[in-house]
Amino acid sequence: MKVTVDQDACTGSGQCVLIAPEVFDQRDTDGIVVLLSDSPDPLRHEDVREAARICPALAITLTQS
Amino acid sequence: MTTPSRIVVVGASAAGLTAAEALRHNGFTGTLTIVGAESRPPYDRPPLSKQILRGTWRPDRVTLRRPDALTALGADWLLGVAAVALDTDARELALADGTVLPYDGLVIAAGVTPRRLPTGHELGGVHLLRTLDDALTLRDGLLAATSVAIVGAGFLGSEVAAVARELGLDVTLIDPLPNPLIRQFGDHVAQLCAELHTQHGVQVRSGTAVTRLTSRDGRVTGLDLDDGGHVTADLVLVAIGSTPAVGWLTGSGLNLADGVRCDQTCLAAPGVVAAGDLASWPHPHLGRMRVEHRMNATDQGTAAARTLLGAATPFAPVPYFWTDQYDVKIQAYGRTGGDAELHIITDDTAAHRFAALYSTDGRVTGAVTWNLPRQARALRHHVAQRTPWRQALRHAATT
Ligand SMILES: Cc1cc2nc3c(=O)[nH]c(=O)nc-3n(C[C@H](O)[C@H](O)[C@H](O)COP(=O)(O)OP(=O)(O)OC[C@H]3O[C@@H](n4cnc5c(N)ncnc54)[C@H](O)[C@@H]3O)c2cc1C
Ligand code: SF4
């Protein structure tokens, strides 16, 4: 799984960090998403899918690598 | 309860689309039909009053899913046609084009429509904002205008006021209540909102209502206020809240007291669930509510789909919303208005940073932050846990 984030669309809601803190973080200043790992451990895939699904800004894209 | 084999979704936007996806995700393989009054494929609304109005995004950027993802749902899309009547006994849905759709599961996700002033909407230069077309028309109007009056200082009115100032227009923000966003945030935070707009050059006219729009040759020229004042404007945005889109459900037997009234699991009647802006339900911890915010459309669409498939659990989210005004991002969890008590954690007005908790009966029921997104996430925990507020404040002071 390959993860990309669109920092321009992100609203800094932090929902992805709540679900998958190993994969996503937020910038201190404005809360915009920061990707900690673009090819997460398979154990995290379900959480990452959930994060992409609920992101209110549709800022997380998953592709099969 | 038998598993349904024919499910119809009414409303092809955030809540309806999510419900449809959740149905498939949870194993529903039957016939899925999605009915939407708008002819566009599902798109997102929050950017309409932000990036679209500012002109930083092209209109196609607001689509909720790429075409291939929509196709993958395996649904029949009936777009540009409204549902007009529901018979819950016969389990049939009638559409405006005469089609009658039998169903054994129904998701109602028709959202809300903007409230209007009693008169004046026929005038040129008077706008509402709910759809992408509304936003594009409003942007064109703003680009041609010099002075703007915004009726209603809720989220929508406040966001548009901010964008209109960024575009260099004269802006007057009018509301009968004492301060902008007071219903949403209570006195103190509403006062901060008023100051924010004033600092950016908005004329904030609080505590006064519009009595009539004035016009010349069919175009709006301004409005009269009940305090005797007059505001000159060549563009007026009416943003005075919305009403659930439930007119078509009259006579269906559903309880329409405030939107579609559901139980804890989003069930409105046997085989009928509701989700999103129009659904009211008794939140197990926060009491009956109807939430007109983006995250709830996703959360409740998912919950309603599960209920329809026989996996009902009480819907108990931590409600979340955000609003962007100028360079301030306001984020909130839980219940933040009403008679809840406010406890300030951070108050750095100069930097527009603010954080506070709201408590009811001694426990945290809400949180709000300005430009402190990480702290918002930390405070959410206390809303979710309903931490006693003293304990939450001590905790916040040490982190
Ligand atoms: C300009 C704007 C800015 C916003 N900004 C924010 C924000 O910053 N943060 C936030 O949290 N929330 C925001 N929101 C709120 C958020 O967009 C809504 O909560 C969300 O769109 C609700 O989704 P929904 O699917 O319930 O309803 P809607 O998005 O309203 O969709 C309902 C759909 O059903 C259709 N429909 C209605 N009646 C019928 C019928 N009889 N038959 C068939 N179809 C029908 C409608 O045409 C519509 O397409 C904003 C809303 C707007 C308008
Ligand atoms: S969930 Fe989406 S909008 Fe929220 S911080 Fe993550 S990427 Fe940004």
Strand content range of chain B: 25-35%
Based on secondary structure, the structural category of chain B is: alpha/beta
Number of helices of chain B: 9
Class of secondary structure makeup of chain A: alpha+beta
**Stretches with pLDDT under 50, minimum 5 residues of chain B:** none
At CATH level 3, the topology of chain A is: Alpha-Beta Plaits
**Could you tell me which chain pair has the largest interface and how many residues each side has?**
A-B, 17 and 20 residues
For the largest beta-sheet of chain A, the strand count, sense and barrel status come to: 2 strands, antiparallel
User: How many DSSP E strands of chain B?
Assistant: 27
Top-tier CATH class of chain A: Alpha Beta
Helix content of chain B: 25-40%
What fold name stands as the CATH topology of the largest domain in chain B?
A: FAD/NAD(P)-binding domain
**What is the CATH architecture descriptor of the largest domain in chain B?**
3-Layer(bba) Sandwich
Number of domains of chain B: 3
How much is the average pLDDT of chain A? 93
Q: What is the spatial order of strands in the main beta sheet of chain B?
A: 3-2-1-7-20-19
Largest sheet of chain B: 6 strands, mixed
Tell me the number of structural domains of chain A: 1
Name every ligand kind in the structure.
Answer: flavin-adenine dinucleotide, iron/sulfur cluster
**Poorly predicted parts of chain A:** none
Radius of gyration of chain B: 22 Å
